[in-house]
Specification:
five-stranded mixed beta sheet; Immunoglobulin-like; single chain; alpha+beta; about 30% strand
Amino acid sequence: MRIRHVLPAAAAVAALLAPAAAQAATKPVYAGTPPKGALSGVPPTTVDNAFYPAKIKVHVGDSVAYRFVGFHNVFFPPKGKPSPAFAVLNPSAPVSGAKDAGGADMWFNGQPSAGFNPLVAAPTGSKVINGKGNHGSGLPSGKPKAYKVRFSKTGTFTYYCSIHPGMKGTVQVVKRSSKTPSRAADAKTVKKQASAANKLAKQLVANATPSGNVVNAGNDKKGIASLAFFPATKTIRAGESVTFQMPGSSTESHNVAVGPEPYVLGQTLEGPGGSLNPFVVYRSDPPTGPLPPLTPTTHGNGFLATGLLDTDSRSPFPNKDTITFTTPGTYVYYCNIHQPDMKGTIVVQ
């Protein structure tokens, strides 16, 4: 009799506990600064390329929903492997037919064309993360929906934004019997992270102007990125040179293009057929020597460009370049990636 009473009781308890144990939760993570934590007291061209929260803990079987604030993606490579590059060179499809405003062939004809990495550009893999295979959201377009993934295995999983080198986050997945932070605790972590980012952003903007004939393309650190040139206006004498440099570390890439504004603004990053514009990717002149001095007739209309600049150790591109200004006048230049807002002026006396 005792056994008959115990078994039904145990079964009833198990029935009550099973739904609670099996119930999975979904935690939010923002790709970019959350709307309520947006940077304040700094120019709107200052952004925070970070995941919020940068670290999150969930139970096995739980999900994370990534909400996009800005141009980011989410990519989980196989455990222990790096994130793939955002752009790739394609030697089998060389650049052809590129001419300057004077009709002369550009030096980069015959060089590999550049394009978005298809592994990054389109959604890939499944939405179950277990440390194997590549899984990614693809590049955002329009009003992107949240990218929701479920974690089927315990462990710590690192993910990346392929667009912004150095932008990464981690998900720690623990057994269901382990404790995880509540949503309120996660929100508190996000608030603390946003406050620290805002403080750093103000410090960087306030101390962004270098000495000498140098212009900083941003003044970035720990994911904070300034889509601006410092100083915005630089005055030099005819015949002097200006070095345009990336900061010590940055999650961004920039270029510097000077010339007639309509012509420069016509050079957008994205080229035909989904390729990247070689006039933005490549330097206007071969990288075997310095850029030629800028004159009103350089490349037919006074055009010079540095090509892409970044601080990514995996990248083939440099972190600085120098332009010599020979003729008095006022020269407006742009970063073609972040135009029209990212621009500066060189006044040559």
